[in-house]
Specification:
Structural class of chain A: mainly alpha
Oligomer: heterodimer
CATH class of the largest domain in chain B: Mainly Alpha
CATH class of the largest domain in chain A: Mainly Alpha
Mean pLDDT of chain A: 86
Largest sheet of chain B: 2 strands, antiparallel
CATH topology of the largest domain in chain A: MetI-like fold
Number of domains of chain A: 2
CATH topology of the largest domain in chain B: MetI-like fold
Helix content of chain A: over 70%
Largest sheet of chain A: none
Number of helices of chain B: 15
Distance between the termini of chain A: 63 Å
Strand content of chain A: under 5%
Number of domains of chain B: 2
Distance between the termini of chain B: 51 Å
CATH architecture of the largest domain in chain A: Orthogonal Bundle
Helix content of chain B: over 70%
Chain lengths: ~325, ~325
């Protein structure tokens, strides 16, 4: 009897022990599997950029050399020199920087205000208006392209400008005005998404916060500025990052409104043609680049477009990822 | 005496809500006015930079637009631009159907992958913030012009990054194909899986924003729900399907809509490029507007249908 109970106890302990072992094994093996999956996906994401990077240091003969795979035999900065000058990098960089900063700040302001309006006030037609926000996302920008182009070519507010100057509106193309105007009114690049993000964020904030402010005698504007805005910083960082990055790499609006202004996205897309033109002009004979070379130039150019963004991301990454955690976007 | 007091009280009681109601209405009206004020920039933008251009573009699509000095002339041509886009144009109809089919195959994969990735990134492990930073990187690496450059690029296609039939792609699922063919699954399903694996880079790189949205959603689930269900003895599997999935399901709708729009209107989309070139390279503004309108209607219909379908599985916790 005694022995039996001892045996039972022991076997029970054994079972518990085995069970514990099983769970810890399962946990450990999952963490290994997870590590492999995550490392694999990270590699997948980084791989093309790393290849671009290695190719960008290769001289022409290395591209055709079968023995050269990732590490160039005789690394060179020649590609960068050529591409930087063909992209007119300095000028294009500053133009892009000004444009992106300007539009993303404007979009941030307008989308925050609009998002707050949708989230916190009840008014007639709110549902319909918000459905229209979604519609602005659905309509491809190409649909509005020609009218917008003409709109800013002959810009006029209710016929006032043409009444004063006697001309058919003023030409706002080749200036930043189209971007400013569209950003301020929440109609810029992907602004529907930003309005949506801000609205979801404000909707998720506790009502008590606002009510306390009202009880303490703050007006609606003051409540917005001093109570809601400071706590909305995470969502605002997210919106700013998106808007800056997407404006930086956008070619659609910049080639529609700024045809003759150099911005990075445009000069990068065109870099191999530009190099071809420059070379032909230098020598006086039409020169054609081989597909491999022109692809190398284009890839080097595209690296140079994202490089400033990657540096920005490196610094803002912590803030950005944290802010995402606290954004709390909920459908 | 007592009676009058009663009536007084009754009167007060009757009068009070009325008074309160009127005051409440005032406040409500004031708040509504403030609401309009906050949304006013959007209303202005909506009319001047959206509704008016949208209608104008429709007008252009049923006219022949001729550029003359100091403006343009419109010659009404009825629906002939639409006819030209659909029947006469060499590739428009085909490209439109192709980009829709492409979207239909990719979006489910994007949603599944981004949900999976968000769940991974939500767990605790070493180097999590680095992994997150890298997972969001495609938002930068494949935006705007980058996508255009990569999609038509020799280097990228030789790496097997973009969808080509090249033999030497880095990520091709030859072994997997062999394995799956040995199992007796239906060939269409096997094809789908293999094409998904072949396109994994496209899917991963189109999932940045969606992962972000899912992750934010996962983090907003109250931990008390999991605590309660753990006490009741639920397993992780049950927790996932009974708590995580329903709580995040509204975001599935959001992400599906976003992915559809992103897939159909991104900068490397063939139809988008065609619409732009028709307008600015061949100066056929009427045809371009007609194409754009057809495309817009197609997207609207697709989004409408998908929202209807996905809404059925969405659970709203309120």
């Amino acid at each position: 009897m005694d022995i039996k109970s001892i045996f039972r106890k022991k076997s029970e302990e054994d079972r518990m022990h085995r069970r514990h072992l099983y769970y810890s094994m399962a946990r450990r093996s999952w963490s290994i599997v997870r590590g492999v999956i995550i490392a694999g996906i990270c590699f997948l994401i980084l791989y093309p950029t790393l290849v671009k990077l290695s190719v960008s240091f290769m001289p022409e003969q290395d591209i055709y050399d079968v023995t050269v795979r990732y590490v160039p035999k005789s690394p060179t900065l020649e590609n960068y020199k050529t591409v930087l000058s063909a992209m007119r990098y300095n000028k294009a960089f500053w133009n892009t920087f000004k444009l992106s900063t300007l539009t993303s700040v404007m979009q941030l302001i307008s989308c925050t205000v609009i998002g707050y309006g949708f989230a916190r006030f009840r008014f007639k037609g709110r549902g319909v208006l918000f459905a229209l926000v979604i519609l602005t996302m659905i309509v491809p920008p190409q649909t509005l392209m020609i009218p917008l182009f003409l709109h800013f070519r002959y810009f006029d507010v209710l016929g006032i400008i043409s009444a004063i100057t006697g001309q058919k509106g003023i030409n706002l193309l080749e200036s930043y005005w189209p971007f400013v105007l569209m950003s301020l009114t929440g109609m810029g690049l992907k602004n529907g998404l930003y309005i949506y993000i801000m609205r979801q964020f404000f909707r998720g904030m506790p009502k008590e916060l606002e009510e306390a402010a009202y009880v303490d005698g703050a007006g609606m504007l003051r409540t917005f500025g001093q109570i809601m805005l400071p706590s909305a910083v995470p969502a605002m960082v997210t919106v700013f990052m998106f808007s800056f990055v997407w404006q930086w790499t956008d070619t659609f609006y910049s080639s529609l409104f700024l045809m003759r202004t150099d911005v990075l996205a445009k000069t990068a897309a065109n870099v191999s043609n530009q190099i071809m033109k420059d070379l032909s002009a230098d020598i006086g004979v039409d020169i054609y680049l081989s597909p491999a070379i022109s692809s190398m130039y284009t890839n080097t150019g595209s690296l140079l477009v994202v490089l400033p963004l990657l540096i920005l991301y490196l610094f803002a990454q912590k803030l950005f990822v944290e802010s995402v955690e606290r954004t709390g976007i909920v459908g | 005496m007592r009676g009058t007091m009663m009536t007084d009280k009754a009167l007060k009681v009757a009068a009070a809500p009325k008074k309160k109601k009127r005051r409440g209405l005032n406040l409500n009206r004031k708040r509504a006015m403030m609401g309009y004020l906050f949304v006013l920039p959007f209303i202005i933008g909506l009319i001047t930079f959206f509704l008016v251009p949208l209608i104008q573009s429709f007008i252009f699509s049923i006219n022949k637009l001729e550029v003359v000095e100091g403006g343009y002339n419109l010659l009404p041509v009825g629906l002939s631009n639409y006819n030209r886009a659909l029947r006469v144009h060499a590739t428009y109809a085909r490209d439109l159907v192709e980009s829709v089919l492409y979207m239909l195959t990719n979006v489910p994969l994007i949603i599944i992958f981004s949900f999976f990735a968000a769940n991974l990134l939500n767990q605790k492990f070493k180097g999590r913030s680095l992994a997150r930073a890298i997972f969001f990187l495609p938002v930068i690496l494949t935006s705007g012009v980058m996508l255009v450059i990569d999609s038509g690029d020799l280097l990228q296609s030789s790496l097997g990054m973009t969808q080509t039939d090249g033999q030497e792609g880095a990520f091709r699922a030859v072994e997997l194909a062999r394995l799956l063919l040995r199992s007796r699954l239906s060939p269409t399903f096997i094809d789908y899986i293999i094409s998904a694996v072949d396109r994994i880079y496209e899917i991963v790189s189109a999932s940045g924003v969606q992962i972000l949205v899912f992750l934010a959603g996962l983090q907003s689930i109250s931990p008390s729900l999991f605590e309660a269900s753990n006490i009741e003895g639920a397993t992780g599997w049950e927790n996932f399907w009974k708590i995580t999935f329903p709580m995040v399901s509204p975001l599935i709708l959001v992400n599906t809509v976003y992915s559809i729009i992103d897939s159909l209107t991104n900068s490397s989309n063939v139809v988008m490029g065609m619409i732009r070139d028709t307008a600015f390279a061949s100066n056929d503004y009427g045809l371009s507007s007609a194409m754009a309108w057809l495309y817009f209607l197609a997207i609207l219909v697709i989004v409408g249908i998908v929202v209807k379908l996905v809404s059925k599985v969405v659970f709203y916790y309120e």
